[in-house]
Specification:
With 189 residues, this protein is an alpha+beta fold. The chain has a single domain, classed as Glutaredoxin (3-Layer(aba) Sandwich), CATH 3.40.30. The protein contains six helices and eight strands, in the order ααββββαβαβαββα. An eight-stranded mixed β-sheet has the order 1-8-7-4-5-6-2-3, sandwiched between helices.
Length: 189
């Protein structure tokens, strides 16, 4: 991460405080059926650029967030020992399978575990979405991760549009409808 400390600090503090304060203030989205609200996902009113990162995947290849620009991205911070993460992962696989050919991807970022443990977990749960290794926790720290699972939704232009603390049923109909709705939004030219 080659960013000045004050930018790092401001962004991670904003994300952390937003998660803590939004539910208290009753901040929620507006419009037709609000699938984010149904899933208890907090929509960000301020545009927050998703900080690019480069992490290794389970094959040792470097993967950049920028590689996925133009797609809707679900970034999920997790670990193999986390029970809510274990519960959530199969539903994430269903979401990924449903939308992977439609401009959507999942980047599951494992927090500070060794590749062999994560590979075994991936095989056990038959996961096909990209899993990246945040070996030193720096990406999680930058993104203000205070507990896992933590999930962010990133739009096609690279802005974080929403976030959630805790597990979700990503295979529920309202999750499918949310991703479908996000995919219908065209990027601004």
């Amino acid at each position: 991460m080659k960013r000045p400390v004050k930018i790092f600090f401001a962004s991670s503090v904003f994300l952390t405080l937003f998660f803590l304060v939004a539910p208290i203030l009753g901040i929620r989205a507006h419009g037709e059926t609000d699938y984010m609200e149904e899933l208890s996902i907090v929509r960000f009113d301020e545009k927050v650029k998703a900080q690019n990162f480069i992490l290794k995947d389970l094959n040792g290849s470097e993967v950049s967030l920028e590689d996925y620009r133009g797609k809707i991205i679900l970034i999920n911070f997790w670990a193999t020992w986390c029970l809510p993460c274990r519960i959530e992962m199969p539903s994430m696989e269903k979401l990924y399978t449903r939308f992977k050919n439609d401009g959507f991807t999942i980047l599951a970022i494992d927090m500070q575990e060794d590749a062999d443990s994560v590979k075994a977990f991936k095989e056990k749960y038959k996961l096909n979405f990209p899993i990246l290794l945040d070996s030193d926790g720096s990406v999680g720290q930058y993104y203000g991760v205070i507990s896992i699972p933590t999930t962010y939704l990133v739009d096609r232009e690279g802005y974080i549009i929403a976030g959630a603390l805790g597990a979700r049923d990503w295979a529920a109909e309202n999750a499918f409808m949310l991703i479908n709705q996000l995919l219908q939004v065209s990027p601004k030219s």
